[in-house]
Each structure stands twice: as C-alpha cells, then as structure tokens.
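Re: the request from the purification team.
They wanted to know what the chain is likely to look like in 3D before they choose a buffer screen. I agreed to run a prediction and write the result into the notebook, where they can find it.
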Amino acid sequence: MRKILLTATALLIIASVLTSCGRGDIKGFRKTNSGLNYNFHVKTNSPKAQLGEIIIGEIWMYAGDELLFTNEGNPMPLFQVGDLMYDGAMKDSLLLEALLMIGVGDSVTFAYNLNMLRENNPHIWGERDEDFIFHTIKVERVYTEDEFEIWMAGEQIRAEAEEAAKLAVFISEQGITAKPNADGVYVIVERRGTGAQATRGKTIGINYIGRLVDGTVFDTSFETVAREEGLFAPGRPYEPLAFPVGAGNVIPGMDNALVDMRVGTKARLIIPSNVGYGGHAVPGIPAFSTLIFDIEVVSVR
C-alpha cells in the first residue's frame, strides 16, 4: 500500500518522541499505567483506531511555545496504526498506545518529558531546554487499507481537477497565448540568449525564482528575494543552481524545458504537477501544485 504520511523529518521527530517510555505528570493531563501523558480536548464515542488502519487528520507539534510542525487546515494521512514504516519499533510502544486511544472526531494532546527522552538518546532535540514536547492530533477520518486506497484515488481526481482549473484561470488572466510543449509545460521566452547551448549532458547554471500560481514564492537563488519573501536561510549559498541537463537532477518539467537553451536566455516555465512534484507535498509546495519558474541561463559548460 502507498504510504503517503507525514514528511520524513516530521515522522522521525514523532517516532523519537513516541517510541520512548514516558514519565512525569503535567497539570491537566492524565497518565496511563505505562507512562503516556494525555489530555483529551474532545472525546467522542466513535470506534477507536485498530491495527492496520490509517488515521487522517491534523497535527500540531510543539517544543515549549515553539511550533515545530503542523498541517492545520490541510488534513492528511498521519499514521498507519501498528506500521508507520518502523516495523518492530512501534510494537508495545507509547505511539501504538496513543493511536489506539483515538477515533474520528477526537482531539487530544500527548506530552513527553524531554529529560526522560534524553536518557535513551542524549542528543535528541539538540540544545533545547524545554521540559516537555507536545503534539496535538485532531482526527478527521479513520480508514482501513482498502478504504484508504479508494479515498486516495478520489482525492487525486479532485486535486488534479482543481489544479487544472487554477492553471486555466492563470493562463487566461496572464494573457498567455503560447502553447504547452509535449510535457504540458508552458515555456515563455522573454529573451533569447546567444551564448553556449545547454545540450543534454552539459552542466547548466540558472538563476531562478519559483512561485505558486497564487504568487507565493517558495524558493529562489537570489538572496535579496529570499530576504524579501521571508525565506532567507543563514548558511545557504545563494548562487546559480548548477546541474547536468537531462540527467534527472531536477523535476522533469524543468529538466526537459531547459534542453537547448542558450546562455543569456530568460524565460518563464509554467510546470504542471504531473511533471513537477505530483501528489507529494514538499516544504512550501502543496501536493498537486503547478509551479512557475522565472529563470535565466547564466552558464553552460
């Protein structure tokens, strides 16, 4: 079965927290005999999740007052009870105990003593000095594997239709008359370069700004733009992105569109998700998102 769960980073954080043994009490929380701290905000009479079922909902992860991860407003598959890609790591763990406590409509916060976690792993959470790590789960649906596959198929059809509608509106509003290439990518050349040509296998260097169709910038090679958009990452080099053309180092829609471009070319690439990231969400880019890249070819070697 496809496992479309939390991002790898978030999963590893959750696993490190939840597969440890809990101790310590917090005001307002109850504690199971095995040491699981919990506080139900909403507790329904709905059937609780069973082994093998998939929990879909929202999650908030906190260290003290700092929000580490959330998918608020965007319910997604969170866990498969008793599996979660950790095999034996979940068996008899607090994570398994926690998931077996919740059902559709439930909202609960679990809390974990950070000092206790460090008894098993001294380096967990780095230099953080909070006493507890918290995560809140709001359950929207619980599916069997078969039900989940049907739901995912329906979600994909809905998401693809929504993406196509948004793209059509964007193309119309921008007055774009160019036709898409064989990949469905719109390549709108603003300036044709006269320098070296980026044939397959050569290394191209590009400056770029990546946006969603609503104008949100999700990535750029320009430090000034990164700062303006609140994306600046200290320590990251802001410089042209260099990679072999046609070697699969970037998303297919970009990789193929750059073939045969020359140094000095400036273009806008409008890349649908089927040759982008598809149904996989990545930081700053929701699943089934059309991507818009304003690029300039600055080197070919």
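For the purification team: Residues 6-24, 84-92 have pLDDT under 50 and may be disordered.
Please add any questions underneath this entry.
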